[in-house]
Amino acid sequence: MANFVQHGDVVICFSGSGNSSNVLNAIKLANSVGAITIGLTGFDGGQLKDLAQICLVVPNNCMEQIEDIHLTLTHSISTCLKTV
Question: What share of the chain is helix, strand, coil (3-state, %, to 5)?
Answer without folding.
Answer: 45, 20, 35
